[in-house]
Design goal:
Number of strands of chain A: 6
Number of helices of chain A: 3
Largest sheet of chain A: 6 strands, antiparallel
Shape of chain A: globular
Number of domains of chain A: 1
CATH topology of chain A: Thiol Ester Dehydrase, Chain A
Helix content of chain A: 10-25%
CATH superfamily of chain A: Hotdog Thioesterase
Radius of gyration of chain A: 15 Å
Oligomer: homotetramer
Largest interface: A-B, 40 and 40 residues
CATH architecture of chain A: Roll
Strand order of the largest sheet of chain A: 1-2-4-5-6-3
Structural class of chain A: alpha+beta
Order of helices and strands of chain A: HHEEHEEEE
CATH class of chain A: Alpha Beta
Chain lengths: 153, 153, 153, 153
């Protein structure tokens, strides 16, 4: 995917993403980390771990989706104003190949930002012995939320 | 959702589901367990755990999706012949409410089984202080796969 | 699907749906008509026409989707306040069987209404020589829009 | 989107697409025509017509989806062997902007071809007074079908 070219509303977008990510215990549990935070584009990486596998020893599709969904949500979040929280309304994922590899790279790129709704496209890649392979694509619909107690930044 | 009324092709469907589920390390890592295995319908339950939370302390959407996707995949698997493996081609999830509760119940029910393609609908419920609430819906497309080494039962 | 049980915010919901539907030239072009308008549930019917077929002489999937999408959008619209317009953000459709029949019935039922976002499930049935068959399922995400000139009621 | 770089299994792919398209009465009814047929990439164009509008006078989302779904299906079809038929299993569409313009261009590009399953991404553009705008994105899952009477080429 081409690099996104967006102007963030909040120059502190990177700190906001990092602060939110660090509060997600689930990301630490699965071992995911933030790799790139650009306006409209976030990359999350996830090393292979036996604890995250499905029945054939590959990375579980749920773990791919979890990290890819986060990359998409945070990509949208980079373009939101400082007082917005991000809420994933829905996503769709196509699983193209098994999660076979040592490292996985999940990339979310904003297709169209909006005041209320932001649409994001995600791609997950497996890096297997140095070769990168597209293993999943996602389309996610994210909402900017303001002033809701159960959905903070 | 109404109870599914399907005749399984393989009377050993329950054992097949249990054996496959037990090989999924990710399910054990997140603490999910099989609760109901009927022909065309599988329920997976997942207790709340702080290690699985998002930034507001609720169950991470990725964990909801992971367990719900498994319920859908295994619901399809119950209706497949004994030599088939199940592969999730794609799914779409709508997140309706935060994952607030002590226990989560994920239910997959087959909408239409097929020789190659089986479509399944999933619903995730949060049980919060005894009250049950619908928190997510899913539609998943599952494929029956035969004779592929990387996709065994 | 079970009948929806919702209380409309605007008692004139039926008139609003009818008035909007009548302004959709596309619905007249394909011959679709409103059959049921209940709070949270709308049924649209579409008779078979050779002009709407795909390469095998069955109803084109696009026509099924068009009418089913409208049923979902209007189902959401029945629950919105009188000054809201409805906008379809996205939908997903699974095509389960060919559009073979003399009449098609598209049913949209609200899963969860919301101030901004309403999620709707749709089902399309073909009536072929008196027998009804499920041919498609849809999940649609609808948005309530206020005060936008390009999106009126 | 980048141009797809695929080698077709059947050198007659263009004729097969044209022959199938011409048998789709619905495409003629709405006025859609084939504009580009490359291996793994098909573009369909659709001029604005009042008969295809929604309640605000813009192109109906159903017509956008119908033509975009066809572009995706035929993009997959270009890469299938000569004896295969193409069946759309499911698609998801995000509607990003109203269908405001004089001409609409729908582009389907194969993400990943497969023996049974081919995943395609679609983009719809409105051309409004010479300016082009992205108005919808689609992900479609297509299946290669062999030897079924109700699903010919």
């Amino acid at each position: 995917m081409a690099e996104a070219a967006f102007t963030p509303k909040d120059p502190q977008y990177e700190q906001r993403v990092r602060a939110s990510f660090e509060r997600q215990a689930a990301m630490q549990t699965i071992g995911a980390f933030l790799s790139v935070i650009d306006p409209g584009r976030v990359v999350i990486e996830l090393p292979y771990a036996q604890a995250l596998t499905q029945q054939h020893g590959f990375l579980h599709a749920g773990m791919i989706a979890t990290a890819l969904d986060s990359a998409c949500g945070y990509a949208a979040f980079t373009l939101m104003p400082h007082d917005a929280a991000v809420l994933t309304i829905e996503y769709k994922i196509n699983l193209l190949a098994p999660g076979k590899g040592q490292l996985f790279r999940m990339e979310g790129v904003v297709t169209k930002p909006g005041r209320t709704i932001t649409v994001v496209e995600g791609r997950a890649f497996a890096i297997d012995e140095g070769r990168e392979k597209l293993i999943a694509t996602m389309t996610a619909t994210e909402m900017s939320v303001f002033g809701r107690d159960d959905v903070k930044h």
